[in-house]
Task: structure prediction
Amino acid sequence: MNYSDLIMKKRDGLSLSQAEIEFIVRGISDKTMPDYQVAAWAMAVYFQGMDEEETTQLALAMARSGDIVDLSQVKGITVDKHSTGGVGDKTTLVAVPIAAAAGVPVAKMSGRGLGHTGGTIDKFESIPGFQAERDYDAFIRQVNHLRAAVVSQTGNLVPADKRLYAIRDLTATVESIPLIASSIMSKKLASGADGIVLDVKVGRGAFMKDIAASRRLAEAMVSIGHGAGKRMVAVLSAMDQPLGFMVGNALEVIEAMDTLQGQGPEDLTELSLRLAAEMILLGQKAFKLTEALEISREMLASGKAAHKLNQLIAWQGGSWNEAGPAYGLPQAEIKAAVNAQQGGFVRSIDAFAVGRAAMHLGAGREQLGDIIDHAVGIQLLKKCGDEVKPGEPLAIMHYNLPQRKTAAQQLLNQAFVIASTKPALQPLIIDVIRAE
Result:
C-alpha cells in the first residue's frame, strides 16, 4: 500500500478497507504520511464521504493510535456523557451528580475549551482548589468510591486525531460528518466507558446549525459506538439561544449549583434530567425511560445529587461556601447592563453572539495559550418569549477589564431580536437516536 493510491481511491469515491484505513492512521500518527498527503486525503473524504463501516474503522483506528483508558477495575457499567458544545452548556455539572447519586459509575474525561466559552474542566477549575489532574489509580478509586469523577484528559490519547484535526482546521475540511463523528468518537472510545450519552447541539450556538445535519452526525456517532460494542444514545437539543441564564465559567457553576438545589432555570433542569435519565438507562439502574426520569427527579428533589457534587468537589480538592455569596466562587469587579432599545417580546437570542461577547470579556480562548478569567461572563435577564419594555435590562455583563466592554456590548445588542408579537417557542429536546 502507498498513500497516493489510497488518496486516489477515496478521490474516486471508492471505499477503503479496514487495513487501508489503519495504514493511513498509522501514517498520520507516526508522521510518515506528510502533511500535504493528509490534507489531500481529508479533502477527498470531505467531497466523497465515507460509508458506515469506513467511519467506524477510522474512529477505532484513531482510538488505538494512543493510550486506551482501562476502566475494567470500576464496579458496574461505566457511563460517559459528551456534548458537542454550546453556549451556557453546564449540564455535566448537573447530570453527572444525578446519575452518580442513582448508582451509575461516571468516569468522565473532559477538555479545556477553545472558542467562545471555557470547557467543562475550565468550569470546574473556577472552584477554588479544584484539581482536574488525577493519576489513573486515584481516578479509579474515586469512581469506585463516589461513583463519579471529572478529570482532564491526560496521557497520549488519540494522537492521530490531534494531528488530523489540526490539518483539517487549516484546509477547510472540518465540516465533514464522517471526520467529525470519528474525531469525537475516537476520544470517547479511548476513554474506556461502557456506555456513552451524546448531547448533540443544534442551532446558531452549535457547530451543527440545522437539524438534518445534526441528526446525520448523531446517527453516525451512535453507529460507531454501537459497532465498537458500546451502549449508545444521542439526544438532539436546541442551541439557538443559550442554555440557562449564565454564560461564563464561575457563573455557570453557580447556576448548576442552584439547579441541584431545585432553583435552576427550566431549560437547564429539563435537559439535565433527561441526560441523567439516559445515563441511568445505559447503566441499567432502570429499564424504562419513565422509571429513569422518576429516579432522576428523586435524586434532584431529595438533595442527593447536590450532595454528590459536593463530594466530587471535595474529593478533588475543591471547596465552596454553600451559604456565602456566589458560593464563594470568583466574581467580577464590574457589572453593566445591556438595555432593550425597544419594547415587545424577545423573538430570538443569537447564542453564538452571546458566546462571542463572553469571550471578549475573557471567558473563552481564541488561542490555546490564552488565560481564562473564570469570574467574567454574561447573565441573561430575558429569554425567548419574554416581554420587555423600552430601556429594560436584557443582560448583565460581568467583567474586570473596562476596555473589554465595548465589543461585548455591541455583540449583545445584536444578539437580541425584539418583535411586536410573542413567538412560538421551539422544543428543547428535538429527537433521540438510539442504537438498534
Notes: The two ends are 35 Å apart (CA to CA). The domain at 3-49 is CATH 1.20.970.10 (Transferase, Pyrimidine Nucleoside Phosphorylase; Chain A, domain 3). The chain has 16 helices and 13 strands. The chain has a mean pLDDT of 94.
